[in-house]
Every structure is written in C-alpha cells, then in structure tokens.
Fold this protein.
Amino acid sequence: MARQYDRVLGELYKTLVGLAHRLGWGGSILLGVSVTAAATVLGFAAIVYLPANHFMPAAAPLPARHPVARIAIKVLRNVLGYTLILFGMVMMLPLVPGPGLVFVLFGLSLIDFPGKRALQMRLLHRPAVRKFITSLRARYGRPPFIVE
C-alpha cells in the first residue's frame, strides 16, 4: 500500500513539475500569485461572514434533519476537507505554486476529528491571532467572535 501511494505521489509530482515547465517562469508565478490571492480572499471572507457566536457551544439543538441528509452532509464535508488537505500537501511540494498551508487549514476546518474544538480554542486564544481576526472583522463592521 505504501509503495503504491509513493508511486502515485511520484507520478503526480512529475506531472506538476512538467506543467510548471510548460507554463514557464512567468506562468508559474502568475498561477501561484492568483491561487494565493484567491485563497486569501476566501479565508478572509470566511472570517468576516461567520456569525459572532460561531465558536460558542450551541445553546439549543439544531433542528432535526432527516438522518440520511445529516449523514450525507457530514460525509460530503469530510470528503471535501480531506481533499483540500491532500491538495494543500501537494501544493507544499517544491516547485508547485500555491498556498498549500491555507488549503490544509481550510480542510482541517471542515473535517470532524477528536480535539478539533480544543485546537480551535487554542488558536483563538493566541493574542496575535485574536487581534488579527478582531481587526479584520471590525474593518467590515462585524462584531468580534464570542469565545468562552
């Protein structure tokens, strides 16, 4: 299994390096800058448009959904999250343009795993992170996140 994974990653890496050579320096730089800008805008939009109480425990349970719909949404979110993590890891390889870390963080925010809330709280309680997020939300007229 590990050898097959290594072979697939090796082929993907060769394909991406070939694409970078075909694009040339200018095309690779333009692609990297474009993807970085798009990911940054999406990240900022997510921070700005989340409700202020997003990180508070739910006071009331969410309305009951059909069990099949609830499971389907959960599976789709996790598949999208793991896909973004894999895509970000590929983008972190040398000679591959793009903000790999941003995609990994987006992916982590979508998937469900034990300790996710604790990790989010640790990040939100860091003064530099809190200051940046609060100033970004204030710039667009949004209240700061309410954190327990």
Q: What stands out?
A: The two ends are 44 Å apart (CA to CA). The CA atoms of residues 28 and 104 lie 21 Å apart.
